[in-house]
C-alpha cells in the first residue's frame, strides 16, 4: 500500500483503540501516546484505554482522543473490564504495548464473539533481560507470551535487536515480527530545547553531565553515579539525573554517602527534558538493557555528546556502531568513567545528518508505517 492510497475517507472509517497500563513517565508510554495523537490528527477515530488513567503524560493526549479509565489497581483484575469495553466499542484495531498488556489484549479479543478487533501488539523491551528478575505471577508471562503472541495479527518490535530476542525467546519465526522504530517529534524537540532553563548549574562554566530515565534496576543509575565520582575526582563537573521510579530512595542514599554529593542532583520527572539535554555537555545512558532508548535520539537532536553502554538492544542501532556517540561495555565503571573524562576534555558536537534521522525515526515516517499496517489489517491483506 502506498502513501497515496491512505485517504481521509479510509481513516474516518477506521476505529482504533490503544491499550496501556497507565500514562506514567516511561518511554513506551510517551511514544505510544505520541502515535495515538498522530493518528487522531489524521482523522482516525481513537479511543485510549488505560488500566489506570494516571500519570504526567495524560496532559499530552490529543483532545480528539476518547480516554477510557478502567480504574483497576491490579492488572490481573482488568481483563473483564477490558472485554466489556471492547464489546461495547468494537474497534477495528487494538494496539497495545508491553508484554503483560499485550497478553491481555490478545485474550480479550479472542473471547469476543462475531467480528473481532485486529490485534497489533508492540514490544519495547528485551524478554531475555528480565527473565531472571520475574517474581510470583510474573513468572507466567513468558509462557503466556509464547501461547498468545502467535494469535496476534501483527507483532511490532521497536528495534531489530528486540525483534531478534523476541523470536528466539518465544520460538517465533522472524517473519512473524516486524520492526518499526518509535516515532519522534523533531519539531517539538527543537522548540522545547530552546526554552530558557533557569538553574544555577546551567551556563556556569562547570561541565554538566546528564542522565535521564525511569529510576529502575535496568537503567543502572548507580553505575553512572559511581563513574561520575571517578571523573569528579579528576576535574570539576556536575551530574543531573531526571526521572522518577522505585529506586529513588536507594539512589538518594548512594548520593548522600558520596564525597561529591553537593555536585549530584536527582531532580525527578521533567516535562521538558530537552532543555537539560541542550544545556548538558554530555549525556550518558548507563542501562543494562534497552529496547530502543529514545533519550539517545533526543540527546543527539539537542546537539549533545552521547555515551551509552553497549547494552542489548537499541544503542548500537541508534548510534550506528559508535559513529554518532561512544559505546562502552555494560557494568564497566572504569570504562565509562574514562570515556566520560575523554568527552569532557575533548568537546565536539556530534555530526548528525538530520534528514537520515528523520527518515529513520521521524514521526511522519513512522506513523506512515503504522498506517500502512493498519490499512492492510482492515482490508484483510496479509503482512
TrEMBL record:
<protein>
    <recommendedName>
        <fullName>Glycosyltransferase subfamily 4-like N-terminal domain-containing protein</fullName>
    </recommendedName>
</protein>
<dbReference type="Pfam" id="PF13692">
    <property type="entry name" value="Glyco_trans_1_4"/>
</dbReference>
<dbReference type="GO" id="GO:0016757">
    <property type="term" value="F:glycosyltransferase activity"/>
</dbReference>
<dbReference type="Pfam" id="PF13439">
    <property type="entry name" value="Glyco_transf_4"/>
</dbReference>
<feature type="domain" description="Glycosyltransferase subfamily 4-like N-terminal">
    <location>
        <begin position="26"/>
        <end position="187"/>
    </location>
</feature>
<dbReference type="InterPro" id="IPR028098">
    <property type="entry name" value="Glyco_trans_4-like_N"/>
</dbReference>
